[in-house]
């Protein structure tokens, strides 16, 4: 029995920083000791939503106490451009036109943050207003342009199928956006070096992009810029491109004044000027038979994208990719409409458009169920992907389908049928408090749809004392990526986890990395780290074969066997060093099999799918619209879990965040285009008191990824977010009870108590 | 404007500092006293990431002016462990994976400690509503609630 090292893959070990987290000693960017003389920058913005900049008088700002100077577009040494996709539509500081309320126009640099923040408010900016458009619907009516090319997915002839369908219905659904509300806000600390060098500590999911953008803005090559991040206090997609602005401004100010500069917006500014999840307006036309089986569907998914492209192209693409969720759509056309609006540019957020597309798809299922007077779960089952009906609207075959088993098991463990009967019985009595229950599935495609992003690198050093230093291109934002990758290395080298140190992510060690996004962190970086381990092991094994004259070499926990001899790891490393064996290696990985032709709408964009299902029961007060989510049961597929404790945390947290998206989190802009929900006082993420008292979360322990992923695990960051769809549908059922389920309530998201009450009143009439 | 001399007790140690009148206790802790365990999540008293205990009362240190600490006792996350020995709540949070990114964790631990000092035997509802002033965006709270309940039970058993 060789056993496994302490902390190796598949063990439920604690987060690598847990002890520092609980003692307040984990350093985030704002906690780093700053160099002597560190200055502070603050952004000043437009008080108009859309208009021409006629003049900026910054004399009062410059004259304010402690101020060293201001920076505007004319002070940018390189390019005035921070578009994450090189669309050229996102100036660092606009020179002619303001495109959303609060858009930064200048930065002020002062001795203290307080001074900079107060000074920023003193600007006199003259803007000649232009008409503005805020919502998706208005944008389409006003024929505003797309911020990026729409996508069309097509298989068969949906129109013909609809015309021939035994039954048909059409509808539309508004799906709200979402603020990330990472607890640690955006921040960058720039430290100027020799010549053109600049070191930046930044809360970023994408250090390589921050590096590229800063280099462009400074007008220097990428090799002059280093971006570091040890950990983030949450990311959720909000730091995939949105940190570019802060990193660039801090760097520009540091270059100008030759001193370190920190830029940290307050929460209100952070929420006003950073992108959010896209709001969608989904419309659908579906044909089906009397058994509820879909024969054809046409859907259009229009999104509020804000003033620039940012990541809206791939986000709206992913909405189209996930409209099908777990269902076979025989004849189908799905189109995206990435609409320009005069709002902050929408960006990545856990699920990346997938949740919005999937939610509209689930609404179609719900509509069919109400039209036929059936349990929506029956309609779901009738439409699941299955043998012979396994091709997605993007022509990828679903080869790893386990949705039926996941749903069957959850139906039983959650006691769904008996509880649904009890809910129906409760509601039949009339009464003020109504109940609802729903069970919804999730199938989520894993891989970046930008195929070239599916690569990763790692760098591992073994020091003479046998300790291991691990670095990879992914970033730690609380999701436990560093822990998982270290566990992979522990198992591969046979070294206990406590001898492996994962250090900050830095562009100095692993270049040209992809964003830690698309749930890909462990899949990509785990494989890259494993590749580096294999290289090191091959060198050590070669050394042993040569020095011992044996063939057989086996790596065991804490030791290596060479023929009949067992050598302690530390002794081996010491010996290998003396024999001049190279003890440092890089690793690299690129996801196999995937390809995607966007123009044709065909390919295999996803390496594999992750699955899950959730069941929620809710109680609704029909006099006030208030509700409680009473019980939630979840069964989720993470393949062979790299770390069950970390994965359960991801599933629970994702569900809570999804529930917030669909219930209490409402972004609200006033008529003038000001975001009015710009702080936790008005923007409500779930609280401990909002969450279900009965929360039963399980991983599908039998599942193993059929693809050759890292240790046969599956990605976990995003897929469980969509488990929360059952909350919306359960609320819908409680509402529908007031008209004896005669009508689908068509609840829009978020289903705030206000919206629930409006729906109750509407259905009562 | 002249700076204000404040004498206070932080985690049992008498401390004095100079501050501007408009500086918050949070700013002084973080920027001047190098105690960065308390975090600024919102700066408006709505997220609880800066929670400290002031004369036995749980407060958001972003809403306390630094001069108000004069002559009072401040307890922060840095004072929760005794040397290398973690407080039972800290140990339980670690063991039960009741944390992810860690930014809300110090505030939640400080709040939970204050709760258990007031009420060693809280109901789950009491824990949930006591911690409703501490936002967490990562965990969904369930493990946090379980960790507080279990620690309370352990401490009662030990008492």
TrEMBL record, chain A:
Q: Which PANTHER family match?
A: ALDEHYDE OXIDASE 1-RELATED, XANTHINE DEHYDROGENASE
Region of interest (Disordered), residue spans: 1-21
Q: What is this protein called?
A: Xanthine dehydrogenase molybdopterin binding subunit
Per its UniProt record, what Pfam families does this chain match? Answer: Ald_Xan_dh_C, MoCoBD_1, MoCoBD_2
Query: What range(s) does the Aldehyde oxidase/xanthine dehydrogenase a/b hammerhead domain occupy?
Result: 23-131
| Origin species | Rhodalgimonas zhirmunskyi
Q: Is ATP-binding a UniProt keyword of this protein?
A: no
**Record-listed E.C. numbers:** 1.17.1.4
Read off the InterPro entries from this record.
Ald_Oxase/Xan_DH_a/b (IPR000674), Ald_Oxase/Xan_DH_a/b_sf (IPR036856), Ald_Oxase/xanthine_DH-like (IPR016208), AldOxase/xan_DH_MoCoBD1 (IPR008274), AldOxase/xan_DH_MoCoBD2 (IPR046867), AldOxase/xan_DH_Mopterin-bd_sf (IPR037165), Xanthine_DH_Mopterin-bd_su (IPR014309)
TrEMBL record, chain B:
Molecular function GO labels: 2 iron, 2 sulfur cluster binding; metal ion binding; oxidoreductase activity
What keywords tag this UniProt record? 2Fe-2S, Iron, Iron-sulfur, Metal-binding, Oxidoreductase
Q: Which residues form the 2Fe-2S ferredoxin-type domain?
A: 4-80
Q: Which InterPro entries match?
A: 2Fe-2S-bd, 2Fe-2S-bd_dom_sf, 2Fe-2S_ferredoxin-like_sf, 2Fe-2S_ferredoxin-type, 2Fe2S_fd_BS, Beta-grasp_dom_sf, Diverse_Oxidoreductases
Give the highest taxon in the source lineage.
Answer: Bacteria
The reply on keyword Protease is no
Listed name of the protein: (2Fe-2S)-binding protein
Recorded source organism is Rhodalgimonas zhirmunskyi
């Amino acid at each position: 029995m060789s056993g496994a090292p302490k902390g190796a893959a598949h063990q439920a070990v604690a987060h690598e920083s847990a002890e520092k987290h609980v003692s307040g000693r984990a350093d985030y960017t704002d906690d780093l000791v700053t160099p002597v003389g560190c200055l502070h920058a603050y952004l000043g913005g437009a008080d108009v939503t859309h208009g021409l900049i006629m003049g900026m008088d910054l004399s009062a700002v410059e004259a304010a106490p402690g101020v060293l100077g201001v920076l505007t577009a004319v002070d940018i040494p390189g390019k005035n451009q921070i578009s994450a996709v090189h669309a050229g539509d996102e100036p660092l500081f606009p020179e002619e036109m303001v495109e959303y309320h609060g858009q930064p126009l200048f930065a002020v640099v002062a001795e203290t943050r307080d001074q900079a923040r107060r000074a920023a408010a003193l600007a006199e900016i003259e803007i000649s207003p232009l008409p503005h458009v805020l919502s998706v619907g208005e944008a389409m009516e006003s024929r505003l342009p797309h911020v990026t090319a729409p996508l069309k997915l097509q298989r068969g002839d949906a129109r013909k199928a609809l015309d021939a369908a035994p039954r048909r219905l059409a509808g539309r659904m508004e799906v709200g956006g979402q603020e990330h509300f990472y607890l640690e806000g955006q921040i960058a600390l720039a430290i100027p070096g020799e010549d053109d060098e600049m070191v930046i500590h930044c809360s970023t999911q994408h250090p390589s992009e921050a590096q590229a953008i800063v280099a462009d803005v400074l007008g220097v090559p990428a090799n002059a810029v280093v971006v570091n991040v040890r950990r983030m206090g949450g990311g959720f997609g909000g730091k995939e491109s949105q940190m570019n602005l802060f990193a660039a401004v801090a760097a520009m100010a540091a270059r100008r004044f030759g001193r370190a500069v920190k830029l940290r917006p307050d929460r209100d500014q952070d929420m006003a000027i950073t992108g959010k999840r896209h709001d969608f307006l989904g419309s659908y036309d579906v044909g089906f038979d009397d058994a509820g089986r879909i024969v054809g569907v046409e859907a259009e998914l229009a999104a509020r994208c804000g003033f620039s492209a940012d990541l809206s192209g791939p986000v709206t693409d992913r909405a189209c990719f996930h409209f099908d969720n777990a269902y076979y759509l025989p004849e189908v056309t799905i189109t995206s409409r990435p609409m320009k609006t005069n709002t902050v540019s929408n960006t990545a957020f856990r699920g990346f458009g997938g949740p919005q597309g999937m939610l509209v798809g689930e609404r179609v299922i719900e509509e069919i169920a109400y039209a036929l007077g059936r349990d929506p779960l029956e309609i779901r089952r009738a439409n699941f992907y299955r043998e012979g009906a396994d091709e997605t609207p993007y022509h990828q075959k679903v080869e790893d389908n386990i949705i039926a088993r996941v749903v069957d098991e959850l139906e039983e463990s959650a006691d769904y049928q008996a509880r649904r009967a009890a809910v129906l019985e409760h509601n039949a009595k009339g009464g003020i408090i109504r109940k609802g229950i729903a069970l919804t599935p999730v199938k989520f495609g894993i891989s970046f749809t930008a195929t070239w992003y599916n690569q990763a690198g790692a760098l591992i050093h073994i020091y003479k004392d046998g300790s291991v230093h691990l670095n990879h291109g992914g970033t730690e934002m609380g999701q436990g990526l560093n822990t998982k990758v270290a566990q992979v290395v522990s198992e591969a080298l046979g070294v206990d986890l406590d001898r492996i140190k994962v250090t900050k992510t830095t562009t100095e060690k692993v270049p040209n990395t992809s964003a830690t996004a698309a749930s890909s962190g462990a899949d990509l970086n785990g494989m890259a780290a494993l590749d580096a381990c294999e290289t090191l092991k091959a060198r050590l094994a070669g050394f042993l074969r040569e020095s011992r004259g044996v063939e057989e070499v086996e790596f065991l926990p804490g030791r290596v066997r060479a023929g009949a001899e067992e050598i302690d790891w530390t002794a081996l490393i010491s010996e290998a060093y003396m024999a001049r064996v190279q003890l440092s290696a890089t690793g690299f990985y690129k996801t196999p099999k995937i390809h995607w032709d966007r123009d044709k709408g065909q390919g295999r964009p996803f390496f594999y799918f992750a699955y899950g299902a959730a069941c929620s029961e809710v109680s609704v007060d029909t006099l006030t619209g208030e509700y409680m989510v009473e019980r939630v049961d979840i069964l989720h597929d993470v393949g062979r879990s790299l770390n069950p404790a970390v994965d359960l945390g991801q599933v629970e947290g994702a569900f809570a965040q999804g529930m917030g998206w669909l219930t209490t989190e409402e972004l609200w802009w006033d008529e003038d285009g000001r975001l009015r929900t710009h702080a936790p006082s008005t923007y409500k993420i779930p609280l401990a008191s909002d969450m279900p008292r009965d929360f039963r979360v399980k991983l599908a322990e039998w599942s193993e990824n059929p693809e050759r992923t890292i240790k046969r695990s599956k990605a976990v960051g995003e897929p469980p977010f969509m488990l929360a769809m059952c909350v919306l549908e359960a609320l819908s059922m409680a509402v529908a009870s007031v008209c004896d389920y005669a009508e689908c309530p068509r609840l829009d998201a978020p289903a705030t108590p206000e919206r629930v009450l409006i729906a109750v009143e509407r259905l009562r009439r | 404007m002249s700076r204000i001399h404040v004498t206070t007790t932080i985690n049992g140690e008498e401390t004095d500092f100079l501050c501007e009148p408009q500086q918050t206790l949070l700013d002084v802790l973080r920027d001047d006293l190098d105690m960065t365990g308390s975090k600024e999540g919102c700066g408006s008293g709505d997220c609880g990431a800066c929670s400290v205990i002031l004369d036995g009362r749980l407060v958001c240190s972003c809403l306390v002016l630094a001069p108000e600490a004069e002559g009072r006792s401040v307890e922060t996350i840095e004072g929760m462990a005794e040397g290398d020995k973690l407080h039972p709540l800290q140990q339980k949070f670690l063991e039960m994976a009741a944390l992810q990114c860690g930014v809300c964790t110090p505030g939640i631990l400080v709040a939970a400690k204050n709760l258990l000092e007031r009420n060693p035997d809280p109901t789950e509802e009491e824990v949930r509503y006591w911690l409703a002033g501490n936002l967490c965006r990562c965990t969904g709270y369930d493990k946090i609630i379980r960790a507080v309940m279990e620690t309370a039970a352990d401490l009662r058993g030990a008492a």
